[in-house]
Amino acid sequence: MRSVDAKKDFGIKNSTNKGVNIMKKTTLILTVIGLIIIGCENQEDSYADRESELLSLLDDDDALGLEGLDDGDAVDDEYTADSLESAGKINLGKVMEVFHPDSGYIYKFGRKITSKTKTITYTHGDDFSIANITWTISGDFICGVIDTATADTNKTEKPFTSEFHRMVRFVEGNVTDWRGRRWRVDAFTMGTGSTDDIVAVTKLEYFTMNSENTWEPGFVITSDEAETRWIQRDSIPTFYKGDSVKIEVSVTNNSDPVFDYKSGEGIVMHYGRHRYYKARRKMHDDGIGPDAGENDNTFTKIWRIHGPGYYVFQPRPYRVFRAFFDVMDFGTLFDTEEDVHTAFWGLPYKVIRE
For residue 324, how many other CB atoms are within 10 A of its CB? Predict the structure, then answer.
């Protein structure tokens, strides 16, 4: 049956009643909008609680973060800041092999990080979350040039800003940890950073020794998949103390002209936990020993795995560390007028005590 408005049918107009009708409609609309807003606020509050838990997971995870990339000052191209086995001994600047670009000078260099800013954008699902993380890193690239004849030292500091990117995926578990957190880190992408697009890492590969004493390919990742391939948190590269690992890192250099020294760039590998508990080793592109081709932009390093380190009361059977593969254009090192051109990849690893 059709509803009839007698006043309308008989031509009766009442401005007061019309206002009442309008008010009723408006109230209904505002009520609906209010319910939507309350629902969004509740959802945002729920995600805020989740994001607070996810942030604590990021801060606590030894596999993530940037500690260990900083050198603190200009140091020898290879140095050990700690034995990685015992706490408290600091030997910053221990000479392993001095880098001589020509016959008359010794170069020391290092990255000193003065500020780090982290920006996180989250994507949430019912039982997963993804954190898109960008670090903005600022500091100085420090180069010390020592004249071996006069012992004079000239130190240059070049400001730099780098961005470092990584995605981390979280999943919800059925059991809470000792802090009452139900979420856990499930996987992450390779960490990739650079100051610009002059130099870039294109491939990273680990080789381990098999029972026939030959190198066997293991972990490998290319630049095409570095920012999209998920690396399971429980399946990061894992080694035993004393293992030998061959590492190959391939790079490109877009500078024109390339600095006329060797292949135009160099790579150092940082590994450990932080500036006072790490080592830095250079990689080689000289075609000697395990390196297949001279100046072919594929750098090689035979890495003997350190132990997981001791605690005061008892040793831990394993520990997670961070490795960074850091390429720089030689103009950065040898030309005081050149800007800083670097790129680096970060990959965590686990060491197990025998």
Answer: 22
For the chain, the C-alpha Rg in angstroms (whole number) is 29
Question: Dihedral through CA 344, CA 68, CA 79, CA 288, nearest 10?
Answer: -30
Which is nearest to 281 in space by CA: 74, 95, 85, 105?
95
Collapsed DSSP state (helix, strand, coil) of residue 16: helix
**Tokens found for residue 86:** 């015992």
Q: Give yes or no for a contact between 160 and 195, defined as CB atoms under 8 angstroms apart.
A: yes
In which element (H, E) is residue 48 found? helix 15-60
CA 235 – CA 219 distance, rounded (Å): 10
DSSP-derived 3-state class of residue 139: strand
Q: What pTM does this model have?
A: 0.81
Distance of CA 34 to the CA centre of its chain: 42
Q: Are 204 and 223 in contact (CB under 8 A)?
A: no
Q: How many CB atoms lie within 10 A of CB 340?
A: 21
Residue type, 234: D
How far are the Cα atoms of 2, 11, 30 from residue 20, in angstroms, in the given order?
Answer: 22, 18, 15
Q: How many CA atoms lie within 13 A of 244 on its CB side?
A: 11
How far from 216 is each of 209, 287, 301, CA to CA, in Å? 6, 20, 15
235-263 pLDDT per residue, tens: 999 999 999 999 999 999 998 878 888 89
120 CB-side CA count, 13 A: 19
Q: Which helix (H) or strand (E) holds 101?
A: none
Q: Hey, what amino acid is at 85?
A: E
Residue 286: strand pairing partners: 294
User: What is d(CA 209, CA 215) in angstroms, rounded to the nearest whole number?
Assistant: 5
CA atoms within 13 A on the CB side of 257: 4
124-183 pLDDT tens trace: 999 999 999 999 999 999 988 888 788 788 888 999 999 999 999 999 987 777 777 889
